[in-house]
Amino acid sequence: MDFVFSVAFLAKHSEEYCAMYDICGQRSDGKVLNCPYGSPSVKPDDLLSAKIQSLCPSITGNVCCSADQFDTLRGQVNGNMTVDGIDFYIAETFGEGLYESCKDVKFGTMNTRAIDFVGAGASNFKVLHMDKCSKVVCSYTEWFDFLGQKVPPGFPGSPYSILFKTTIHDPSPMKLMNASVYSCNDTSLGCSCGDCPSSPVCSAPEPSPPSNAPCSIRIGSLKVRCVDFSLAILYIVLVFVLFGWALLQRKRGSRRLESSEEPLLNDMVGEGSSFANLQKDGIHPVEVQLIDHQGQNVVQFSFVQEWLSGFYRTYGRWAARKPTIVLFSSLAIVVLLCLGLVRFEVETRPEKLWVGPASKAAEEKDFFDSHLAPFYRIEQLIIATIPESKHVKPPSIITEENIELLFEIQEKVDGIRANYSGFLVSLSDICLKPLGEDCATESILQYFQMDPDNYDNYGGVEHAEYCFQHYTSTETCFSAFKAPLEPTTALGGFSGNNYSEASAFVITYPVNNAIMKVGDENGKAIAWEKAFIQLAKEELLPMVQTSNLTLSFSTESSIEEELKRESTADVSYIVMFAYISVTLGDRPPHSSSFFLSSKVLLGLLGVLLVMLSVLGSVGFFSAIGETSVASKYVGGWRGAKTNLQSTHAFITVIMTFITDTFVGVDNMCIIVDAVKRQPSSLPVEEQISNAMGEVGPSITLASLSEIVAFAVGSFVSMPACRVFSMIAALAVLLDFLLQITAFVALVTLDFVRARDNRIDCFPCIKLNPSSVEENEGIVGFRNGIAFMIFLQYFASNLKDLAVFDMILKAYCSDYKFDPFVALSVLDVHAPFLGLWGVKILVIAVFVAFTLASIALCTRIEPGLQQQIALPRDSYLQGYFSNISEYLRVGPPVYFVVKDYNYSLESNHTNQLCSISHCDSNSLLNEISRASLEPKSSYIAKPAASWLDDFLVWISPEAFSCCRKFTNGSYCPPDDQPPCCLPDEGPCGLGGVCKDCTTCFRHLDLVNDRPSTAQFREKLPWFLDALPSADCAKGGHGAYTNSVDLNGYERGVIQASEFRTYHTPLNRQSDYVNAIQAARDFSARISTSLKMDIFPYSVFYIFFEQYLDIWKLALINIAIALGAIFVVCLVITSSLWSSAIILLVLVMIILDLMGVMAILGIQLNAVSVVNLIMSIGIAVEFCVHIVHAFTVSLGDRNQRAKTALCTMGASVFSGITLTKLVGVLVLCFSTSEIFVVYYFQMYLALVIIGFLHGLVFLPVVLSLFGPPLRYTVIKEQLEEDVPSASSE
Known about the structure:
Layout: H1 7-10, E1 17-18, E2 23-26, E3 32-34, E4 39-40, H2 46-55, H3 67-71, E5 85-89, H4 92-102, E6 106-107, E7 112-113, H5 114-118, E8 129-131, E9 135-138, H6 142-147, E10 161-165, E11 216-219, E12 222-225, H7 226-259, H8 274-281, E13 297-299, H9 303-321, H10 323-338, H11 350-353, H12 360-371, E14 377-385, H13 400-414, E15 418-420, E16 423-425, H14 427-430, H15 453-458, H16 460-470, E17 491-492, E18 504-511, H17 523-546, E19 549-554, H18 558-567, H19 574-584, H20 594-597, H21 600-623, H22 650-676, H23 684-712, H24 719-755, E20 758-759, E21 762-766, H25 785-795, H26 801-812, H27 819-834, H28 836-857, H29 876-886, E22 892-901, H30 908-912, H31 923-931, H32 934-937, H33 946-953, E23 963-964, E24 970-971, E25 997-998, H34 1012-1024, E26 1052-1061, H35 1068-1089, E27 1092-1096, H36 1100-1103, H37 1109-1132, H38 1135-1159, H39 1165-1190, H40 1196-1224, H41 1232-1264, E28 1270-1272, H42 1274-1280
Parallel strand pairs: 5-10
Antiparallel strand pairs: 1-4, 2-3, 6-7, 8-9, 11-12, 13-28, 14-18, 14-19, 15-16, 17-18, 20-21, 22-26, 22-27, 23-24, 23-25
Helix pairs in contact: 7-28, 8-25, 9-23, 10-21, 10-24, 13-17, 19-21, 19-40, 21-22, 21-24, 22-23, 22-24, 22-40, 23-24, 23-37, 23-39, 25-26, 26-27, 26-40, 27-40, 28-38, 28-41, 37-38, 37-39, 38-39, 38-41, 39-40, 39-41, 40-41
C-alpha cells in the first residue's frame, strides 16, 4: 500500500542530506516517482560523474541522484511509498531573481518567450493570483504556482505537486532557499541579446532616426509648415511686383495713346480691292504672309512652320483630288498592323505586370521562391460582432453561441468538394500540413483540436479563454496539427493582450502554393477557392447574418476574379461617340437642310479610325513580342499575406482608346472646323488645301507633343504602365497619320456629298435641289479668308477697339463651327479679360493656385488603396475594411542570408546566431535590438532562428534531442515513434531506443560549435526532427523550408532565412516605410558582417515602386516637359512662345497634383502615367491659342482677342466639351480605379486645362506675348496679288 506524506516531515533536515533519493515507482502514465527516504548525499562513481558533468559541468562531489535516476528515470518498483507532493521553501529575492533571469529567454521554434511555454505567460514574479482570474485573493507567484502544478497523466509537467513557500511559520530547521541567482547579463552565462537585452554584449539600441515630420513654424497658436510659409511669402512678393509692374505699364500706355495717330478708317477697301480678290483667287493668307495696310510689313513664319504649311497645303489639295486612294492605302497599312493581334497575349502574373525586369524585389522574390519555398495561398473568413451604435465598442465575440456557429461553419467548409478535371478536391487535399496529416488552420477551434466533441469535454468558453494565456504550455490548448496557436492570428478587434474582448474571429486556411512558371500547378486550389466563395455567398453569409454578425471573406484568387467581372461590366462610350458625331456637323438655319449639314457618319467613321489606331498599335507590339498587359493590383495584408493579383488586357485597350479618342477627336474637330471656315464658293480641293495649310502646323505640333509625352511614360519601369504608354504613344501617332490621310479623305467625300445634296448616313439618297434651302452662308466679304485678311490689314493701326470688335463680330456671326460660342467669346469673354483689373486678378489668382498646389503636392502619399482597384459592389470591399479594422498581426518578414559558410574555420556562424559565444553584433542580435524600436524599425519581435535552435539541439545539454542509435543513425526522443508507439500505452525506458545516446559530448565540440563534418551530418537530422514534449527544438515544420540543402555538402548553404514579423501595417505609407526600414537595416548589417543579407516579405515586390515613386514621377515629368519644349521650339522657332507654352503646362500639372492631394489620390504607377500623359493632353489647350496668336496682326490685346475668336471656340467646343463628355461617362463605372484615377484626374485636367487655355493663357499673351516679326516683301506682293484695276 502506497503512503502519501510530505517530505518535509520525514526527511532529515541538515546539510549534505537528500530529501529524496533513488526511484521507488511510477504513475500509470510511466512518469517515475522518487523514494522519500532521507539519506546522506552520495559520491557518484566515475561513469555517473561523467554523465552528470556532461549535463551540468558545475556539479562536482556528492549528489542526491542515483545512476538509475540519471540513466533511466523510469525504473519499475512495486509496493514502495512514492512522493505525491513536496513543500519547497524559497526566498522572495531568489524567486524574483530567477524570474528576472529567465523572463526574456526566447522559445525559438514559436518565436515567443520561453516563459509563455513554461511559465503560463507570467508577466512578473509578484503578480498576485486571481480567483478564477477575477479577484486578488492570494500572494503566491504566478510562475512558481504554474511550475508546481501536478499535471494529469499524459501532460508535460511535474508528476507531483510542488508547493512553493516564502515563509517558515513553525519552528523548523528548514531554511529559505536563497541561493545566488545569475542574472541573465552575467558574463559567465554568455546570454544572447535576444534572450537578455541587458547582456553586456548587447550595445544600446541605436537612437531613433530623426523624425520625418516636416519643418514647421509656430505663429502664435498657429503651426505652419515651412514650405507653406515660404510660398506665402513668395506669393506676397510676387503680387506686389505684379501690381507695381501693372501701374508702370498703365502709365506708359496712356502716354503712347496721347501721341498716337487716329485710325485710318477711310482706308477700308471695298469689294474690288486686291484683298477682296484674294478670296476669288483662292489665295490663303499664309501665301500673302498676312499683309499690312502698306503691303510691306508681314508676319514671317519660322522655316519649319512655313514648310509645314506649304506641305499641308499641297498635300491637302492632292488628297482631296484622290480621296479613295488615300483612304484605302492608309487603312491598308493600319489593317496590316492589326494582323499582329494573332500573337496577342494576356499577362496576368502580377510580378510580370507591376515589377520591372531590373527590380531588386523581383530578383529577391525569385531567389526566395526557388531556393526556399513560395509563400502559401491564403483563404480567409472574418466574422465580427455589430456595435449597437457607431461610437459604442462592439461586444465580444467569445460566446458559446458564436463558437458553436463557428463549428457549423467549419463543418460546411470541410464538406466542400470542388471538381477539378474530374477529381473532387477537398480542403484536406490542398491545405498546408506542417506536422502531420492535419491542416494548419488558424482558428480558435484549434483550442478544441477542431473537434466539436471536445468543446464540452474541455470546458467550453472558459477553456478557450484559458488557452488565450496558456496556448504554449497546456497540451489541451495545442492545435490539431500539434503546434501552439497564437490568439493574435485567430482573433481580431482587441487591444493589447485582452483577447477575451475580441470582437472578431479570423479564420485562415493556408493552402500549398506553387511557382507558376509553367502550366497550372495551382489548378486544384483555384477550383476549391471558387467553391469556397460560392459557399460563403450562398450559405455562410445568411447563417452569420441570422446570428446578427457580419461576414467577410476572400481567397487567393478572389481579386483576379473580381477584376475580371469588373472588366466586362464597365460602361459603354456611346454617349461620347454620339457627341462627336453631332459636334462635327453644322447647325443649319433651316430644318430641311439638317440631313445635308449633319455629319453623323463622318463622326462615327472618325471614331472607327481611332479604334483602328489603337488596334494597330496593340497589333504592332504583339507582333514584335511586347505582350499587351494591363492590370490593377491590390496590396493588403490578409492575416499572413499580401494578396496581389491582376486582370487582363481589357483595361489597357480601353484606356488607350479613351486617351487616343481625347487626342484624335480634338484634331478631327479642328480640321472640320477649318474646312467649314473656307469660302463656300471655292472648290472642295481648295477648301481642304487652305484648311490643312491653316491648321496643319498646329495639329502637328500638338500631336508630336502628345506622342513625346506619352512615349516618356514608357520610361516607367513597371511593365504594365510601360507597355500602356508605348501602346498609347504609337496609337496617337497612328491616329495622327490617319487624321491627315484617311480622315481628310473622309472629310472630302462628306463635303462632296453635302454639295451633291446627298443625305448623311445614306449617301445613296439624293434630295431634290428645289427642296434644299441655301444654307452655306453669305459668300462674300464677311465669310472667308478675304475677310480675315481685311481684318488683319487694319488690325495693326486700329486704335478704336469698338470698331475692331464690330468687324471681328461680323466674322464671328458667320462662324459655322459654333457661332453662339464664337460670339459669346467675343461679346463677353474677350472684353472681360481685356480689362486691366481683370488681367491682374487672373494672374494673381492663377499664381496663387499654383503656389498652393506646390504646397499641397508635398501631402500626396504614395500607394494604391485596395478598395479602389475593385468594383464598388465587390464582396472584397468589406473584407479589406475589416482587415484594417480587426487584424492585430503584421506580415512576416524573412531575413535571407546568401552563401552561409558553416565550416568551423569560418566565423559566419557566430556572426548570425544569438546564443552563447555569438558575436554581439550578429544578425539575430541586431534584429532583437531593432525589435526594441518597433516604431522606426517596423520589426515586432526577435527572429525565429533555425541556427540557434540547431546549435541547442545538438548540444549535450539537450540530451533528449540529438540522439543516435548504436549504429549511428538518428534516434528520436523517447516520446516519439519508434521509441514510443501511440497504441502501446505509456512510454517506458525499454524498447528499441533504450541504448540511444546523445550525439555529442562537450569534448566532441569546439567552443560548443560542431565541426564542419558534424554540422553537415546533423543538419538534415534537425530539419526532419519532429518537436515534442521531450524535445521542443525539433526543426520539422517550423524550419522545414528555412534552409536550402541543395549543394550544402560543400560547406556553404546557398540560402537560409530567419523569420520575424512586421508590426501591423494599416496604411499604404506603413507598407512603404516598412520595406524601406527593412532594406536600410539589411544594408547596414550586410556591410557590418560582410555577408549578403536581404529582407523579403510577400508585399515587397508590389510596394518597391513607391520607394522612389516621387523621383520617378519628377524625372519623367521633367523629361516630358523638356521634350515638348524642344518640339515647340523646333516648329515655332520662337523661344518666347515655347517658354509660354512650357509655363502653362507646368502650372497645369502642378494644379493637377494639387487637386490630387485635395481628393486624396495617391501617387503610384497609374497616377504617374496619367500625369505624364496629361502633359500631352494639356498641350491641346495651349498650342492652338498660341499659334493663332502668332499668326494674328495688331497689338497684343487685339491678337489675343483674335486668337480667342478664331480658336477659342474650337478649344471650347472641339477640345474641352469633347473631353468633358468622354470623361463624364467614366463616372458611371463600377470600378473605383476608373472613377478615381481616370474620371477624377481627367475631369480635373479638362477643367484646369480649359481655365488655363481660355483664361490664363490669353491674359499672359496679351501682357507678355511674343512680338510680331516683320519682313519687306512688297515686290512679291505686287507679283502675286492682282490689283483691282488690272482685273
